[in-house]
Amino acid sequence: MTKTNVWLATLTAPVMIALLLMLGGSPSVVANDQPSAATAEVKIDNFSFGPQTITVPVGATVTWTNRDDIPHTVVSTDGVFKSKVRDTDETFSYTFTKAGTYSYYCSVHPKMTGQVVVQ
Amino acid sequence: MPDKKQDFIDQKLQDLNNDGVDRRGFLKCMAWAGTGLVWTMSGGIPISRAFAKSASKGSGKDAAKGADFSFVQISDSHIGFNKPANPDVTATLQTAINKINVLPQKPDFIIHTGDLTQLSKPSEFDTLDQVLKRASAKQIYFVPGEHDMLSDNGEQYLQRYGKGTKGAGWSTFDHKGVHFVGLVNVANLKAGGMGSLGHEQLEWLEDDLKGRSASTPIVLYAHIPLWTVYADWGWGTDDSEQALSYVKRFGSVTVLNGHIHQIMQKVEGKVSFHTAMSTAFPQPAPGTAPSAGPMKVPAEQLQQVLGITDVNYVVSGSSLAIVDSALGSASSAAPSNGDGVGGV
Q: What is the ipTM of this complex?
């Protein structure tokens, strides 16, 4: 961390503020010089995935949060990933290491479908 | 209304052409057109509606008289659910059981049409068993809801309630001349689809019904409606048409479902469809809310939107009279005329 702090000290104030804001939002993206994993969020509200289609870079970790009063699951249509049942406020994360389009659905309420596009 | 009636007549004429339904059968169905053909949406208000010809003249009270036997359907007890509008679903299930236990005509058995639990947890199944033990009717038949198969593809459900069943829990039994078939439409659901019976179960059903006389009254029960109540919310079963084609030739078919936590009814030819209230929490009428999630109602109204379904069967008329009553309805609290099934 010392190295980072020295580096931060050389930056001008506006850049510092911007950087700190970013640090607050998603620290893994800018914590060091190494290319690090991006993160993305999908919320489950009212029996639907939002956003229904999300585009992320290779290596990104997507986290789903169930905000309904009813349990849901996040299950890849092609068997790539499968969450356990997620009750209210429970989450499921999956890291996408290969480019492609991943369709998924809730196996409890199969009308609920979504897509992760990994580029 | 005229359009619906016309559709019905058209449908009947088509049936005449396709299946050779005789004129008498046609007229009988027409009589139903005047009484209870259209969808009945209760909006959570307890209603009593008799499908049977004999009962169409009076209320459910009359229907119960002289019935050869009765049974009760309960549904969607969701043991483990603890959010608004019902933080204590165990208590409301107990109320339902109490109500069943004081019915003037003792039901021969109970059918639970699924969503026994909220999360398929062993402790939830245990609690359910404890409450159901207090029912005076000792025989209880089950089909699973999607909530009962959440974590293990229904293994635990089958261990507990699936003895002697086939596949994911399909079963049949006969009672006093009526043939009952429990179907499972919550297993292996496909992305974008609704409920599903699956090829294997459909074959099994066809085989089961094949040798039976057309005069045998048939009762099909399953968790998700076997007719499309509202496709946008997945309230239907993708391959139910296939299943219903096997029962077309029978003179009396009753389909009992749960899942949607409200009463809906439809009569199509000789097939009467009916969905039951939940004992746990109400859900909105189709399309009236952003989603099918639990409907929040004031505490004092809760018992008006939860309930049980009492089904009376009269052998002579080959008919089933279905009476829904809310947990909080007056008839259960004070059956003054000794006939407490009238739900209105």
A: 0.75
